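Good day; I would like, with your permission, to put a structural problem before you. What I wish to show you is a protein chain and, alongside it, a tokenised description of its three-dimensional fold. Please examine both parts with care and let me know of anything in them that strikes you as inconsistent. Thank you for your consideration; the sequence and its tokens are set out here:

***
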Amino acid sequence: MAPSLPAAVAAPSPPEWLGPFARTREPAPAASTSLWSRVIAAARRAVGIREAARPAPLLLPPGETTGPVPEFVRSAARESGVELAGLQGSLVSENVANRPRAVFDVHDPVAADGERYTVKIAWHPQVNAGIENEHWALRALTTRKPVHSHTYPRPAFLAIRGSVVLSGQEDPGGRPFAECTDGSATCGHAERALAWLVEMAAGTFRPRETFALAAPLEEIVERYAMKFGPSAEAGRFLHTQAEMLVSAGSLPTVLHHGDPDPGRNVRVTGDGSPAFLGWEECALEGLPLWDLYWFAQGYGRLALERGGTRYDAAAFATQFLERTFHSVTLVRAVAASCERLALSPRLAAPLFHLGWATRAVRGGPQADVYAEILDRCIAAEAHDGGLAVFNG
């Protein structure tokens, strides 16, 4: 029998300020995992435990039941008063975007409307940090209550065993957003999602002196320059955008999601409300409007790809840098958020540009697309006298 894992230690308290750039990073290297047996095997190896005999991998496809929740996970949940005995687990995903982790849907095998949790297990420092970050973000939402509690996962437990992190969340239910939207620029589900993001920002914003943003903003500009090599003109433009934000003196920071992609992280609940998942990139005090920009871009991509059209920076420019139904919908949401946050509308464009620089610097499979989007935004500013989307 393989030895047991070390006892769980208390999860650390969240930092006083998880800034908007705390989660900028490159994807972690890939690791090999599959289902409960291999996940636990990998976790044991991560904390330096040699197994007497390694069970054969169970190569089941996502969605198939993997069996009862093992004691390794049940004990972690039990420390927070959550009992998973009698529940079954089904693999949802593993090694998403080269991140060594496994995500399981843990549910009652008999009652369709019974208890349901999302359990995440990770064993890489960068991925672990995201899962811990997500837990504290959901705790903050639960405490501040800016939006209805059925529109996001409720945190159930977080346990740390050596270098392994386990988290559990109550599943909010609902259907994938992509199955519900009609893909149009006037889709009601998309408008409700944008309204939800406006409401969340309004319910969590705090004024912050901008001198604290100077260093991280400049770091993003410098990292973007090192990674993508923009022209000298583009580099000066980005520095100017950062200076515009810093010179504002005060800026509302908000709890922002950080990755509100409707194709991955949004569902539609039974009453038509959006439910946002995947809070690993959240900032407890992030910059405003970024979630709106990133959701709108993700929705534009989803709308085109479901129609068989290839998505690229040129498609983004058509949708959002000109006056279209897509851009008008986004501008209305931005205007509503500026009003609720007492944010000067003149800061919407600098936030727009630096938001794409931030997404590009984070890395991932879409990094080059975000860099190309930023190039087109800068070109529109230089040659068209400013972005049409922000010019009335």
